[in-house]
Amino acid sequence: xxxxxxxxxxxxxxxxxxxxxxxxxxxxxxxxxxxxxxxxxxxxxxxxxxxxxxxxxxxxxxxxxxxxxxxxxxxxxxxxxxxxxxxxxxxxxxxxxxxxxxxxxxxxxxxxxxxxxxxxxxxxxxxxxxxxxxxxxxxxxxxxxxxxxxxxxxxxxxxxxxxxxxxxxxxxxxxx
Length: 176
Hints:
The protein has 176 residues and is mainly beta. It has one helix spanning 2-23; strands spanning 24-27, 35-38, 65-67, 75-76, 80-87, 95-102, 107-115, 124-131, 147-153, 166-173. Strands 3-5-8-7-6-9-10-4 form an 8-stranded mixed beta sheet, with no helix packed on it. A two-stranded antiparallel sheet has the order 1-2.
């Protein structure tokens, strides 16, 4: 009887874990440590022009960081160069991370922006970054595959959640 109870508990545990992972995928972003996004395949999206895109609502942060050479939604090619200015505390050791993601939030490239001046200030400091990537969009593909983001993350050497910040900059990929 004791063995049967243990087997029943283990079986229920496995079923619960399976159902949990079957229904969703977790995406972690600096702004949202645990955002649930429903799992979908390309065939599920074939009837949609533009599915819901994580972080698609662009919110500029002109008091903290500004991208100067790109406009939101602009079409980019690889390698992409990003220039702008950020407050000195956005940097650590004169750099901060840059991440390029597809429409669904999957990272396709990563690099670092470099300060072009003294970053140990609260004033704006110019920066530049060049990031190479492989475009997730092929000519003739689905329109939503063109959508993506460049994420400019505040460098957080402390690792404390209250010190995290990012600018999610929407872009469009040119066909490869």
